[in-house]
Specification:
The protein is an alpha/beta fold. The protein has 5 helices and 6 strands; from the N terminus they run βαβαβαβββαα. Strand 1, helix 1 and strand 2 form a beta-alpha-beta unit. The structure holds inosinic acid (IMP).
């Protein structure tokens, strides 16, 4: 596959998160798109003042585009736990604190679920999956080790990234990022 549009080679991925960057690079790489990132370019990290994933993604993309003069690509995402009314949601990164300690953030979530007597898989639903304890696996990033996607026996922390993406022809997109990317690819990269 190749890209015949000006986006190729002139794209900045608006993230400072190495885990996300690796995944976004893999996803874009399928289309022959190489990109630098906001982190690699030393661009400032904007404050995420939005009240939705969409608003925060827009803030990041606009900030990177303005600072670099390039087309920017951003994603804002997080863990949305049903029993916690969708928390941590847009605050997913912040729950890990300044040290970005996701073991601490996962313990916090597990503790809050236990306080609510949420011990069965059905009570521990998050968007598109279930939260397990203890966390499993060293792969991925963020909350991956406690997230068991629906219909699977391995957590995202136990899966190679290609399985987490779950892209065609073997799947129809497994992670939220891969599924969103497929829509973007269809709209902008010739599918
Ligand atoms: P932000 O979108 O940069 O504000 O960060 C969202 C946070 O949500 C990340 O720091 C991760 O902790 C978490 N997150 C987002 N996507 C994933 C994922 O695919 N796996 C695990 N955690 C994720």
């Amino acid at each position: 596959m190749s890209v015949h549009r000006p986006i190729a080679g002139r794209l900045v991925i608006a993230t400072h998160n190495p885990g996300k960057l690796a995944e976004m690079r893999e996803l874009l790489g399928r289309f022959g798109v190489e990109a630098t990132s906001a982190g690699e370019r030393g661009l400032p990290e904007p404050e995420e003042t939005g009240t939705s994933f969409r608003e925060n993604a827009r803030i990041k993309a606009q900030a990177a585009a303005a600072a670099s003069g390039l087309v920017a690509f951003a994603d804002d995402s997080g863990l949305a736990v049903d029993a916690l009314d969708g928390a941590p949601g847009i605050h997913s990164a912040r729950w890990a604190g300044p040290a970005k300690d996701f073991r601490y953030a996962m313990e916090k979530i597990d503790g809050m679920l236990r306080e609510r007597h949420a011990v069965t898989p059905a009570a521990r639903r998050a968007h598109d999956g279930t939260l397990v304890w203890p966390p499993r696996g060293q792969k991925g990033f963020g909350y991956d080790p406690m997230f068991l996607p629906d219909g699977h026996t391995l957590t995202f922390g136990e899966m190679p990234s290609q399985d987490k993406h779950g892209l065609p022809p073997h799947g129809r997109g497994l992670s939220h990022r891969a599924r969103a990317f497929l829509k973007l690819a269809e709209a902008c990269l010739g599918g």
